[in-house]
Design a protein that fits this description.
binds NADP nicotinamide-adenine-dinucleotide phosphate, alpha/beta, globular
Length: about 240
């Protein structure tokens, strides 16, 4: 089975308390990886970890607000104290507010830029020495189709997610010689709590499901290290 190449690897997943991050954590654990989950809602994190442990997997969590920069560096220290190595970083935590620019609050602008872009940059930096030691290793950044295309009332979200694509492309070049693969997964509308808030009117049966993103993640991570992916784009039948 292809996923067995993940057995024994250590993965850090941010935003693992719900939606895609939760599905990523469960799938990585099922594939044999040791998973370290990070987010703010402790109860939700505990539920996911308990589910992994009851299925015979290995996981732990750490409560973190990814907007607090020093906490990201602490997060990696705590992970290394527990698991001793880091092979896979999944920068997945994200928020989106949809509104015309004139009506977008400054607090929302800052929250999107810090959560969807800056946190991934800081956490990649914080993780880099461990990923270098573990190479071949992976950084996967969860961007969005909003990172590749602009849409009305999504200006700041698009800015943050396209910033994340730019960061991914440049870091992929920088880390290629070190055998660290850096990939962006760019999904369209996926049925999660996020989309409930972001665009609740969409035709649900046509949307992507978290499992669609899980397949993309496992495809990236189980590809041989000589295969680089750049961006994986997942489009639903509706946009
Ligand atoms: N759903 C979609 O249609 C869609 C499409 C394209 C891309 N995406 C991207 O996919 C990623 C996951 O979103 P989702 O759809 O799974 O939504 P979700 O269910 O709302 O999950 C978002 C996750 O991010 C975490 N998070 C948010 N702010 C955080 C903070 N300051 N510190 C730590 N964790 C934080 C949340 O955890 P806590 O609240 O517990 O902290 C939660 O686990 C996001 O980056 C999103 O932009 C989603």
């Amino acid at each position: 089975m292809a996923e067995s190449s993940l057995r024994g690897k250590v993965a850090l997943v941010t935003g693992a308390s719900s939606g895609l991050g939760r599905s990523f954590a469960l799938a990585l654990a099922e594939a044999g990886a040791k998973v370290f989950l990070a987010a703010r809602r402790e109860e939700k994190l505990r539920e996911v970890v308990d589910e992994i442990l009851s299925a015979g997997g290995e996981a732990a969590y750490h409560v973190v607000d990814v907007r607090v920069v020093p906490a990201l560096y602490d997060l990696v220290d705590v992970l290394l104290a527990r698991f001793k190595r880091l092979d896979i970083l999944v920068n997945n935590a994200g928020v989106g507010y949809r509104s015309p620019l004139l009506e977008t609050r400054r607090s929302e602008i800052m929250e999107m830029l810090e959560t969807d872009l800056a946190a991934a940059i800081y956490l990649s930096q914080a993780s880099l020495n461990a990923l270098l030691r573990a190479a071949p290793s992976d950084i996967v950044n969860v961007s969005s189709i909003a990172g590749l295309e602009g849409f009305a009332e999504g200006t700041v979200y698009c800015a943050a997610k396209s910033g994340l694509v730019g960061f991914t492309r440049a870091l992929a070049q920088e880390l290629k010689p070190a055998n660290i693969r850096v990939t962006a997964i760019c999904p369209g509308s996926i049925e999660t709590d996020f989309f409930e808030r972001f665009r609740p009117t969409l035709d649900r049966p046509q949307m992507l499901r978290p499992d669609d993103a899980v397949r993309a993640l496992l495809y990236v991570l189980t590809s041989p290290p000589n295969v680089l992916h750049g961006e994986i784009v997942l489009r639903p039948r509706v946009v």
